[in-house]
């Protein structure tokens, strides 16, 4: 199976602000952002299936974004320690400018009660990587040490509902079963 990667030029922050102003749920925000990306590319490239994805972090009813600075990352981690939050990973497939599949996976995570010193050192050691991640952690790296429990699919934590996507592609005959 051949594929290409094309960045969808969408203003995610403006869209997110508009959706929040309309009191959209975090699930709907993730789904809408993924759809915007898939639609943008599909409109330009008719024919092939186009996958758009997005992930949001819902912490006590508020969306957390990627940290803007090490201080912001530390503040996010301190606020979440010992508490639960949810990651929502959305994927939407468009073809010929129309949506043909969508899924939003959910994972509930509870952080450990890490000390201020550990969190400071964690941010210092990992800043180059975690500045690109909502919640200021990457589970596939040292960030796994921040957690007490994780309820849900690991691939959703990574940002893609991969099992559901593979099932869809197999049923459609795009990949072998």
TrEMBL record:
<dbReference type="GO" id="GO:0005737">
    <property type="term" value="C:cytoplasm"/>
</dbReference>
<feature type="active site" description="Proton acceptor">
    <location>
        <position position="54"/>
    </location>
</feature>
<keyword id="KW-0546">Nucleotide metabolism</keyword>
<dbReference type="InterPro" id="IPR029001">
    <property type="entry name" value="ITPase-like_fam"/>
</dbReference>
<dbReference type="GO" id="GO:0047429">
    <property type="term" value="F:nucleoside triphosphate diphosphatase activity"/>
</dbReference>
<comment type="similarity">
    <text>Belongs to the Maf family.</text>
</comment>
<keyword id="KW-0378">Hydrolase</keyword>
<protein>
    <recommendedName>
        <fullName>Nucleoside triphosphate pyrophosphatase</fullName>
        <ecNumber>3.6.1.9</ecNumber>
    </recommendedName>
</protein>
<keyword id="KW-0963">Cytoplasm</keyword>
<dbReference type="GO" id="GO:0009117">
    <property type="term" value="P:nucleotide metabolic process"/>
</dbReference>
<dbReference type="InterPro" id="IPR003697">
    <property type="entry name" value="Maf-like"/>
</dbReference>
<comment type="function">
    <text>Nucleoside triphosphate pyrophosphatase. May have a dual role in cell division arrest and in preventing the incorporation of modified nucleotides into cellular nucleic acids.</text>
</comment>
<dbReference type="Pfam" id="PF02545">
    <property type="entry name" value="Maf"/>
</dbReference>
């Amino acid at each position: 199976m051949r594929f290409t990667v094309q960045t969808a030029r969408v203003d995610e922050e403006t869209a997110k602000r508009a959706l929040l102003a309309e009191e959209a749920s975090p699930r709907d925000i993730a789904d809408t952002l993924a759809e915007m990306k898939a639609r943008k590319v599909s409109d330009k490239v008719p024919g092939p299936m186009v996958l758009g994805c997005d992930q949001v972090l819902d912490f006590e009813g508020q969306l957390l974004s990627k940290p803007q600075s090490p201080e912001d990352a530390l503040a996010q981690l301190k606020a979440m320690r010992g508490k639960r939050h949810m990651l929502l990973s959305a994927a939407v497939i468009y073809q010929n400018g129309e949506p043909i599949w969508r899924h939003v996976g959910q994972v509930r995570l509870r952080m450990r009660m890490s000390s201020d010193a550990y969190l400071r050192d964690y941010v210092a050691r990992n800043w180059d990587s975690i500045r690109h991640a909502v919640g200021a952690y990457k589970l596939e790296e040292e960030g796994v040490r921040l957690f007490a429990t994780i309820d849900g699919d690991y691939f959703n934590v990574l940002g893609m509902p991969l099992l559901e996507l593979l099932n869809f592609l197999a049923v459609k005959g795009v990949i072998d079963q």
